[in-house]
Amino acid sequence: MGLEVRAGFQLAQSRQQSVDVVVVGAGIGGLAAAAVLARSGRKVLVLESHDRPGGCMTSWVRKPRDRKRVARRFVFDAGVQDISGLGPGRPLHQLLATIGEEDGLEWLPVHHRYVIDGVTIDMPRDWEALSRLLGDLFAEEAVGIRAVLTEIRQAHDDIYAGMESARFRPVGQLQHAEQAQWISKFARVAQAASQPFAELLQRHLRNPTLLSIFSILSEYVTEDAARLSLADMAPLFGYYTHGGFYPAGGAQRLPDLLSRSIRQNGGAVRLKTTASRFVLRDGQLAGVELATGEIVNAPVVISNAGILASHGSLLGDHDLPPRYRQRLRQMRRGPSAILINFGLDRVPAIPTRVFVQESGLVFGLSNPSVVDPSLAPPGHAALTLLHLLREEDSSEWFGLESPAYENAKETVARRLIAAASRIVPDFERHIVHYEVAAPPTFQHYIRSSNGSIYGAARGQWCPPVRSPVPGLFLAGAGTATGPGVEAVVLSGLHAAHAIMDA
Question: Is this structure's pTM higher than 0.90?
Answer without folding.
Answer: yes
